[in-house]
Write a structure and sequence with these properties.
This protein has twelve helices and eight strands. It is α/β, with parallel strands linked by helices. The chain has a single domain, classed as Alpha-Beta Barrel (TIM Barrel), CATH 3.20.20.70. It starts with a helix and ends with a helix. It holds the Pfam family OMPdecase.
Length: 278
């Protein structure tokens, strides 16, 4: 039986470091690589990143939307990315941000977290804004299958501030309420639970308390969006050992040469390890 996601992630980070790299085949990057926009270009871009990094990073994060844009051909590429990344030893966090209710949420969970699903990933991102309880099918199936979920708690986009900083019925901000709900899902799990949160590395320090979370924290925003490694220390405090700093463009724009992608990853990873004392 597969070990829990928290244990598998902790081991991967111990071996390969905490940096998570996104696979975001944005049209601007495809053109920067002189590939154009087609399913064939998508596959070349994505599989070049897999070739360069899947044997080096703990976690790769393909952004599903950029693959979905090409229809069935794009989904076929995404399946290949997931399969070959995992074969090379990387865990795959599929960035799908799904959130729904009842049988629909259960169907999303089956699509990405079931053992026999073609798109089964090690973890997925989910949105709790139909209520944290609506995520129960995904949280339960993930735990059953040794997989994980990362719940959007406090994102760095300006449109999210009004909702995520509003006051929940509990009296806490909505973002803090989500972190606290995730903490309840992770109670007594060792070395940490399978429910992570997403908290942008550019949000103000001290806004959220992660001390009881006992789960991983995906922290997008490093590099191109303005966050620095020093910001991570101030923002996450004692929870820093569970933080997964995330970058995409700062690595991807160095392609298409495999060595250039590897060099960019190595520079960022070394900076993170040095400043965090890893």
């Amino acid at each position: 039986m597969r070990a829990g996601f928290g244990a598998r992630l902790a081991e991967a980070v111990r071996r390969r470091g905490p940096l998570c790299v996104g696979i975001d085949p944005h049209p601007s990057l495809l053109h920067a690589w002189e590939l154009g926009e087609s399913p064939q270009a998508l596959e070349r871009f994505a599989m070049t990143v897999v070739e360069a990094l899947a044997g080096r990073v703990a976690l790769l994060k393909p952004q599903s939307a950029f693959f979905e844009a090409y229809g069935s051909a794009g989904i076929a590429v995404l399946e290949k990315v997931i399969t070959e990344s995992r074969q090379a030893g990387a865990l795959v966090l599929l960035d799908v941000k799904r959130g729904d209710i009842g049988s629909t949420m259960a169907a999303y969970a089956m699509a990405y977290l079931d053992e026999h699903a073609p798109l089964a990933a090690d973890a997925i991102t989910v949105s709790p804004y139909l209520g944290y309880g609506s995520l129960a099918p995904a949280i339960g199936l993930a735990e059953q299958n040794g997989r994980g979920v990362f719940v959007l708690a406090r994102t760095s986009n300006p449109e999210g501030v009004g909702l995520q900083q509003s006051v929940h019925g509990s009296g806490d901000a909505v973002g803090q309420h989500i972190v606290d709900c995730a903490a309840e899902s992770n109670l007594d799990k060792e070395p940490m639970g399978h429910v992570g949160v997403v908290a942008g590395a550019t949000i103000p320090a001290g806004e959220l308390d992660f001390s009881a979370l006992n789960g991983p924290i995906l922290a997008p925003g490093l590099g191109a969006q303005g966050a620095t490694v020093r910001d991570l220390k101030a923002l996450f405090g004692r929870a820093l050992p569970n933080v997964l700093p995330t970058t995409s463009r700062d690595v991807l724009r160095q392609g298409p040469a495999v060595q250039s992608l590897q060099d960019a990853h190595a520079r960022i990873a070394e900076d993170i390890n040095r400043q965090l004392g890893i």
